[in-house]
Specification:
binds FE2/S2 (inorganic) cluster, five-stranded mixed sheet, Thioredoxin-like_sf, Ferredoxin, alpha+beta, 2 helices, Glutaredoxin, 5 strands
């Protein structure tokens, strides 16, 4: 079972959303490390595992680095290693989105 899938536009080839690739790269390293350290990849986790993927572009292209969290479709802007940690602890684990960092919400088409 999967609880969340996190997609990070960390080091996009066109660098449209984040002009400083160092911030995106550091955020990606933090995301990988924290998902592991917080036990979110543990197959025995009751809520399901957390997947993370480095995306090239999530079609937001502003206020990056951009973090998209499914299944809610929450889009966080301006992420950093510090924000990644807060988002994992408060939103992914705690279930409380951090409203002031959310720039958009997207939804999947409802299943028929
Ligand atoms: S370049 Fe980051 S969302 Fe498009």
């Amino acid at each position: 079972m999967i609880s969340h899938h996190l997609l990070l536009c960390a080091t996009p080839s066109k660098a449209l959303c984040c002009p400083d690739p160092a911030i995106g790269a550091a955020s990606w390293e933090a995301l990988k490390r924290l998902v592991r350290e917080l036990g979110l990849e543990d197959p025995a986790r009751a809520e399901g595992i957390v997947l993370r993927t480095k995306a090239d572009c999530l079609r937001i292209c502003a206020e990056g680095p951009i973090l998209l969290i499914w299944p809610e479709g929450t889009v966080y802007g301006g992420v950093s290693p510090e924000r990644i940690e807060s988002i994992l602890r408060e939103h992914v684990i705690g279930g409380q989105p951090i409203e002031q960092w959310i720039i958009k919400r997207m939804s999947l088409k409802a299943a028929a």
